[in-house]
Amino acid sequence: MNPSTALATVMVDEFARHGVVHAVLSPGSRSAPLALALHADDRVRLHVRIDERSAAFFALGLAKASGTPVIVACTSGTAAANLHPAVVEADLAGVGLLVLTADRPPELRGTGANQTIDQLGLYGGAVRWFCEVGTPDAAAGSEGYWRSMASRAAGEARGASGRPPGPVHLNLTFREPLAPAGDEASAGGRGGDRPWTRTAVPDVVASEAVTDELTREASAATRGLLVVGDTAADPEPLLDLAEVAAWPVLAEPQSGARTGAQAITTYDLLLRDDAFAAAHRPDLVITVGKVALSKALLAWLSPDARQILVDPHGAWLDPRRALAQVITADPGPLAASMTARLAPRLDRTWLDGWLEAEGRVRTAIDEALDAAQAPNEPRTARDLAALVPHGAVLTVASSMPVRDLNSFAAARRGLRIFGNRGASGIDGFCSTALGVAAASDGPAFALAGDLSLLHDQNGLLPVPGGLPDLVLVVINNDGGGIFNFLYAGHPAFEAVFGTPHGVDLGRLAAGLDVGHRRLDRAGDLGDALTVAGAGGGVQLIEVRTDRDANLALHQRLSEIASAALS
Hints:
Oligomer: single chain
CATH architecture of the largest domain: 3-Layer(aba) Sandwich
CATH class of the largest domain: Alpha Beta
Strand order of the largest sheet: 2-1-3-4-6-5
Number of strands: 17
Largest sheet: 6 strands, parallel
Helix content: 25-40%
CATH topology of the largest domain: Rossmann fold
Radius of gyration: 25 Å
């Protein structure tokens, strides 16, 4: 076995021993040893994508949905640079990626050799660990070194070092010959398919003193509030705590906590009403996860209330500099311990005030949206979240789709919601959604804007064996609709913000061999989802809207919400 083949084979074998089951590869010459090793190992499901940026986001979606690190491998040069956007998202979202970049040997660097760039530390601080593995040779001890590096990489990607899970970068130098020589031996390794070095993710448990102190604060608070943003925390213990404490729960859609009887799903609309916001200021706020979707919520959470963030890694999630305390602990076990200590609150006046407002605004908004005949953006987001079947996954793009879901979708169970909320970019969305679909057992759906679709249309390119089944609902308002809420009326608005493109999405879908249908009546979304879901592969449902009309509708819905509260 030549050294390059040996390194690649050992690395793949060791990652499989650590439970890695998915790998995404973009074709290239220098990465041939990796490609062949991945193809040969039937413990790893190999996905091949021709565009490295798309491949990396596909891997990100796989890792999000599976909860385990995923390999993404590519050749040298700009191929490696194209992985960077997904690496950044994985870093900020705490998602494990094993980034394997092939590279030229040292004697070819800095010589003008083809497809050779400086790949050392290419992703900077966005990775949990970087290792230049070195040019493989047949020296004694090489296998142990390679397996040790792979074990460390797998552990770092999972968060075994105590840092959040995230991307790891191994730069693998391959010297020719790159193809197997025909005398291949087994990969070796420890017996029983055991990893070379086992790693374990540490439990981060709050001390008894911290738990007791926070429990006393929760008991003393008369206006407590639980806010849950983008987090991997188990939502059920959080909801149990809120129930015992009689607290409202303000949860973003992807948190998984927007399910209980105390979920205030209209909080964004409620807090835009000055009178309601002033009359419902909390005295204690416990936050879990990154909260970023509602400007009204962030503005309302003033430093006057005692705000406590619970994060397993002590992340400093405080853009408004309002936190009084950061508790480094797993939120689920801490919430469970607090629930066991707390006496159920009998006075539910505070909670009932929120629930009454929620009911009034929800009824008023639903009546207004149900009256619409033509499709619109808020209703599409609301209806999609309600109509997809139990056990489904829904991937939602950044910008307006996720905000509309946050503002208008009702509480429900049996739906896992994903989105790229780390860096909150629109890039790589189609690929991420397909990765989520490929790693999920239930039916897969996605909601995106036209720019998110166009930005990552490469993700929809046909592949051998076909793409995963995905129903993709696209809001087509011919440009950047979110900017109408920010810069509308500026003389240069259409040129530099609106950016109308005029793309015919039906023709685009046909060129990609993707099913396409337009939604002409708002009430027909359920039927369209049923038909699309039976079609197999990727099915696109286009919802055409007008950006100016969408802005006016949002303004009217805010007025309707305020009127319902008066």
